[in-house]
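Hi everyone, sorry if this is the wrong subforum. Our group has a chain we'd like a structural model of before ordering constructs, and none of us has done structure prediction before. Sequence below.
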Amino acid sequence: MKVLLCHNYYQQPGGEDRSFFDEEWLLKSHGHQVVRYTVHNDVIDDMSPIHLASKLIWNRDSYRELRDLIRRERPAVMHCTNTFPLISPSVYYAAKREGVPVVQSLHNYRLLCPNALFLRKGKVCESCLGKTIPLPAVIHGCYRDSRMSSAGVAAMVTFHRLIRTWTRAVDKYFVLTEFARDKFVQGGLMADKMVIKPNFVHPDTGPGNGSGDYVIFVGRLSSEKGIETLLAAWEQLPGDAKLKIVGDGPMAGRVSQAMNDDPRIEWVGRRTKEEVDQLIHNASCLVIPSICYETFGRAIIEAYVHGVPVIASRHGAMAELVQHGETGLLFDVGDAQELRAAVERMFHDTDKLYQMRLAARRTFERLYTAEANYDLLIGVYNDVVTGGHLSTPDRPYLIKKSPVEA
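Answer:
Right subforum, don't worry. Here is the predicted structure as tokens:
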């Protein structure tokens, strides 16, 4: 099968970029042909706000380039990892005009919340959930702390809701968890168009033994990731429990100061994938104190592959991926005292920690291997390709013209 993969890279590499690379590898490893269409957010720096806003809603260049690419390559299916902000939903219509079914991965909540996090002023916010016009996000400047930027994203979401892009122009959606699926259903997407397909880990480097005797945090150093909760827990934590912090971001200064004040904390900055794997491999446990929902939490399954249990906030996808008392421990969002207690429990009950390590590894082997993911991926591709969504012009939901051409 020939597959067209479509992705808009972020300025700072993240989990969505990683998923794009992983799925490309997965398809090629099973003998499929892959065609890429990608753009990078670095070009935004040279755009005026008005120019960017126009591309955000409908990128004529992407539409034209995709149609030309599809005519040349004739892929069986187009799979979009991320179209925000530059590619835009126009590419769905380009594929439809050329008779190619569309699959879209939903790695964040952008269709429901302009800042994609359901987070405002350090707390979960669902004010825009289910609203045709996400006006609260504009009023509060939720995207990049700017009302103008938020208005641009809100205009994109509203325009495509009104012309029913999300329901008519996409054949199937991949969501990462049941929690995410429920949120998108609340937001107006059809449940029967969504398939739960989690991320996967490759290669399988095998379980570690926790020989490093430390707790590890891996992620962006930003407020929504619960950095303040993590540091506050360590301030309360007695003894010599060590913490390694991997990553970079706007709170790097705060983390650096904490490291200077507490010799048990080590900030190692950004590291290569191989280096991060080794750091997790030797860890006793991994902590994810996010105050936002998280659509998945890739670090959780990256811990499981090494047999490393996880301490995570008790909400969103994290509460679904971490089985409390089995593959890790959960604590109330933002509760530094409960997080401290969870860390103490991990280190004081060595027998339970060993059982959690075994359970974490078993969970990886059952749910998050490349082969398990491939079965889900190719199953959906086959479904949309053979389902006849686009093959006959008498179908009432066939989109014959794009909104711009109509």
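For your construct planning: Residues 2-200+371-386 form a domain with the Rossmann fold fold (CATH 3.40.50.2000). The mean pLDDT is 92.
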